[in-house]
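Title: Comparing notes on inverse folding

I've been comparing how different people in this forum approach sequence design from structure. To keep things fair, I'm posting one structure and asking everyone to reply with a full sequence. Here's the target:
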């Protein structure tokens, strides 16, 4: 949903969270066949694999990865209400909905037997932790959804279509996978 993605980057742009500056939202499907938005160009590299980071060397790679974590901390420190995102999602029951959603995804894409996966899913359902106060959750926070500058700092977080309000530890969990 382009309108939703535009909304979140518009709300986050004035904060310490690095996002591209939103320029325009166009909901007129006659222009390109679907709603779209335009954002500023941000200079940076979207690394996709550890191998792509290798030329940076260990110290620069460490700096980039620490920046990835620090940037996630900045995102989760944003007060959703203070930036106009209090109604951006349904944080109540977030973990339960995520578990059900990804369980359905697993069932729909199952092409081989994974020993213990169904038992793991059931155990997770029985042991869902209490969530902290809801944060803006990116929903797909990982190395290839950020642009890293030549100074090894995060220049922009991209790909906000899965963002919502929810448990910030879900972003951390995805990042460490």
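Reply #1:
Here's my take.
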């Amino acid at each position: 949903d382009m309108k939703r993605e535009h909304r979140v980057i518009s709300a986050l742009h004035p904060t310490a969270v690095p996002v591209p500056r939103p320029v325009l939202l166009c909901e007129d499907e006659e222009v390109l066949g679907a709603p779209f938005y335009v954002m500023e160009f941000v200079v940076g590299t979207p690394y996709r694999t550890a191998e792509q980071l290798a030329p940076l060397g260990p110290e620069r790679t460490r700096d980039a990865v620490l920046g990835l974590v620090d940037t996630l901390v900045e995102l989760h420190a944003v007060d959703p209400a203070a930036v106009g995102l209090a109604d951006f999602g349904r944080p109540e029951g977030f973990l339960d909905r995520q578990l059900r959603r990804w369980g359905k995804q697993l069932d729909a894409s199952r092409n081989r037997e994974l020993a213990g996966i169904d038992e793991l899913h059931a155990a997770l359902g029985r042991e869902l932790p209490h969530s902290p106060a809801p944060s803006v959750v990116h929903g797909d926070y990982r190395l290839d959804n950020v642009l890293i500058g030549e100074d090894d700092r995060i220049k922009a977080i991209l790909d906000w279509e899965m963002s919502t309000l929810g448990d910030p530890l879900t972003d951390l969990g995805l990042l460490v996978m």
